[in-house]
Amino acid sequence: MDVAALYDEGLSIRSIAEETGHSYSTARRQLLAAGVELRPSGGRPMAADPVAEHLAALYRGGQFGRGLSIRAIQQRTGYGYAFIRTRLRAAGIELRDRNGLPRKAVA
């Protein structure tokens, strides 16, 4: 898996580590070895893309009910959990909690 391409797509080092099954420090070392200039903490906003829109449609569901969970989308598409979550957030989707309710804002 090309860690530089994942980072360039907007994934964080932590997300890349999760996607590749490595530790944070290993993922960071791989990025530096690939000559990637690391972003400042906080990253940069990621624009939605056609994949994000497709994943958002699966998550939202149709007119007859709630959409799929992130885990169900993961099983259906083969994408990693962090990849899906990042793309959903890029598409402006409000994520649900384990009970299927919108997540509450942290005070």
Helix percentage range: 40-55%
Q: What overall form do the CA principal axes indicate?
A: elongated
Order of helices and strands: HHHHHH
Number of strands: 0
Indicate the radius of gyration in whole angstroms.
15 Å
- Main sheet, how many strands, which sense, barrel? none
Quick check: average pLDDT? 84
Helical segment tally? 6
* End-to-end C-alpha gap: 38 Å
- Beta-sheet strand percentage? under 5%
Structural class: mainly alpha
Low-confidence stretches: none
What does this structure look like?
With 107 residues, the protein is mainly α. Helices cover 50% and strands 0% of the residues. It is built from six helices and no strands. The longest helix is centred in the middle third of the chain and has 11 residues. It is elongated. The mean pLDDT is 84.
Element layout with pairings:
Blueprint (H helix, E strand, L loop, with lengths): L2 H6 L4 H8 L3 H10 L16 H11 L9 H8 L3 H10 L17
Helix pairs in contact: 2-3, 4-6
